[in-house]
Amino acid sequence: MGKRATVQMVALVFGAIYLLAGILGFFNHALLGIFQVNLLHNLVHVAIGLGGLAAANIGGSDIALHLVTGGVLAYFGFAAPVSTRSS
Questions:
Q1: What mean pLDDT comes out for the span 7-15?
Q2: Phi and psi, residue 7, nearest 5°
C-alpha cells in the first residue's frame, strides 16, 4: 500500500465497506439479514463509499483543512444554539 497515512488507510477501508454495502443493498433489501435498506439508502452508501475511496488519495495539509472544516460544520450542525428569525 505504499506510504499511506493511517487516516488514508481508514478512509480506504471504510470507503470500500460502504461501497460494497451500497452495491449489495441493490440485490438484497435486508442487508446481512439485519439491516433494512432501500434505493435512497443504497445510493447514500455508494456515495459515501466513493467519497472514502477518493479521500484515500488526499494527503498533507488537506487532511488538517478538512478536519477543521468538519469540526466547524459539526459544531454548527449539532451544538450551536438554535435561533429563530422574527418576521
A1: 89
A2: -65, -35
What does DSSP say about strands 35-36 and 30-31: parallel, antiparallel, or unpaired?
antiparallel
Please tell me which residue, 8 or 44, carries the higher pLDDT value: 44
For residues 54 and 44, give the distance between their C-alpha atoms in angstroms, rounded to a whole number. 15
Alpha carbon distance, N-terminus to C-terminus of the chain = 57
The cell 459539526 sits on which residue?
Answer: 74
Q: Can you give the residue range of the structural domain that contains 22?
A: 6-79
Length of the chain: 87
pLDDT digits (tens, 9 = 90+) for 35-69: 888 999 999 999 999 988 988 887 767 777 877 89
With 0.90 as the threshold, say if the pTM is over it: no
Is 87 domain-assigned? no
Chain centroid to CA 66: how far?
13
Cα–Cα–Cα angle for 74, 15, 58, rounded to 5 degrees = 75
Is 25 inside any structural domain? yes
